[in-house]
Amino acid sequence: MQQFLWGAATSSHQIEGGNLNNDWWQWEKDGQIERKEQSGLATDHWNRFREDLKIAQDLKLNSYRFSVEWSRFEPQEGVWDENAILWYRELLRECEGRGLLPMLTLHHFTIPKWVADKGGVAWEGFAPKFLEFTKRVVSSLGSRVPLWCTVNEPMGLAIGKYLGGFMPPATYNPELVSQANRNLFHAHVLAYDAIHQGVTQREGPWKDVPLAVGFAHNMIDFLPARSWHPMERWMTLLCRNFYNRSWLDAVTGQKQHFGITGLLPNPPQLGIALGRKTVDFIGINYYMKVYLRWRFKSNQPATSEVLPLALQFSEPTDKVSELGWAVYPAGLGRMIRFVKTFGLPIYITENGIADAHDKMRSSYLVSHLREVAKSIRDGADVRGYFHWSLIDNFEWIKGFEPRFGLVEINYENFQRLPRPSAELYRNIIEAHKAARGQAPDLSVLDTNFLKYFLQE
Ligand code: FCB
User: Fold this and answer.
1) pLDDT digit string (tens) for 183-220?
2) SS3 for 9?
3) N or C: which end of the chain has fewer CB within 10 A?
4) Cα separation of 192 and 345, whole Å?
């Protein structure tokens, strides 16, 4: 049996630096990021990846989730950059040398600028072009990669771009939400098949680990702001169904419902994905609960024009992160239980907190891992946990201020400094390894790591 994977996750644009050929770079130049920040050198991971992976090894991680940057592979349409490919080869070699089983994400939010110029993920040519990119990745890196995520948070991406206004091109067009979801799903299906067909030979330390392809699904624990309120209860069901469930139905070969009757058009079904599974595992990215508040005749602007709906990220009694997201581990448990009903292996592909002074991260880690452990004991097939993130990074529209790293980055000199929570994570991993063979039993934490709770 494969060992439980203890990992951390990153994404190319957020850490590498110098990703000047993608849509986010342009968006940053247009002044769309808070404080008008630009990713620039980001964490300079491009030059410091060896140091970063050494830290991961020192923290006793046995896995690392990262993404490859399409705009580096193919900076212009049909022009492939061999240097970029070589760099990712080096990255994989470094993972191998340090005992970090790689989980490779093909698409983590950014697209090459030339793709964006043609209409991005809403462009009908998107999926075939993504397939060409995938084939390049498969032929150049594929033999050494056991775990793959095709797309990261496709639903969040489609909404961020065409409804929420927080991702480029920030066009308000509900029809494109459905279109983007369908194209991303098409891209996912083509990539799933291309990886399984294209990876014919395996090499390296993980050559016997079964090849598995999944996607990373952002899941939110939606709740009615007032449990008695019929409209809020109805919206809660609707959001759970659309946001949390639709992709899971699609990748497991059931109906594809990337629309909402009367609100978002339902795009045509993609025949090649009906009646069969196009994932080998489900990745859960979990960060938050959201209360839905009905604002029928409110004079405050509704969050979206599609529904008279306000989103509330916490209750007054909740502990919140520096982004105002409630710390709510029970939601992770609930999401795992839901995904379990689809009968597939599960990875927690992201989970973490913005906490610059590391005041909450330790207890956050423990409380969320306890939910993971509980769900494993209750029969969920959770095979790994990837904390977001290994290092501080460029948090999309929020810029550099939110600090999600187990490791602090000093942006003046790019020094890396593991936070106390990183040490806690290492201790958890070691405690678990010592009791290998069982579901992670985290009860040990109550006594051994009490001091971390007391710091709060
Ligand atoms: C997730 C993204 C990841 C990071 C975290 C905080 O939605 O996948 O890149 O921004 O949120």
Assistant:
1) 999 999 999 999 999 999 999 999 999 999 999 999 99
2) strand
3) N
4) 16
The two structure tokens encoding residue 138: 């498969």
Task: Return the amino acid letter for 241.
Answer: N
Amino acid at 203: E
Residue 55 in tokens = 């830290």
Q: Number of helices and strands (H, E) in the chain?
A: 16, 11
- If you measure from the C-alpha of residue 448 to the centroid of ligand 1, how many angstroms do you get, rounded to a whole number? 31
215 lines ligand 1 (CB under 6 A): no
CA dist list (Å): 283 to 22, 66, 219, 251, 455: 25, 14, 10, 12, 32
Q: Establish whether residue 67 lines the binding site of ligand 1, counting it when its CB lies within 6 angstroms of any ligand atom.
A: no
Phi then psi dihedrals of residue 80, to 5 deg: -105, 130
Residue whose C-alpha is closest to residue 71's, from 114, 40, 8:
114
Q: How far apart are CA 71 and CA 21, in angstroms?
A: 6
DSSP string, 424-442: HHHHHHHHHHHTTTS---G
- Tens digits of per-residue pLDDT, 378-427? 999 999 999 999 999 999 999 999 999 999 999 999 999 999 999 999 99
Three-state DSSP class for 309? strand
**What gap in Å lies between CA 251 and CA 247, rounded to an integer?**
6
Helix (H) or strand (E) holding 14: helix 12-15
Ligand 1 centroid to Cα of residue 428, in Å, is: 24
Q: Give the number of C-alpha atoms closer than 13 A to the C-alpha of residue 329, restricted to the C-beta side.
A: 16
Tokens of 234: 């109805």
Local structure of residue 108 (DSSP, 8 states): S
Q: What is the 3-state secondary structure (H, E, C) of 261-302?
A: CCCECCCCCCHHHCCCCCCCEEEEEEEEEEEEEECCCCCCCC
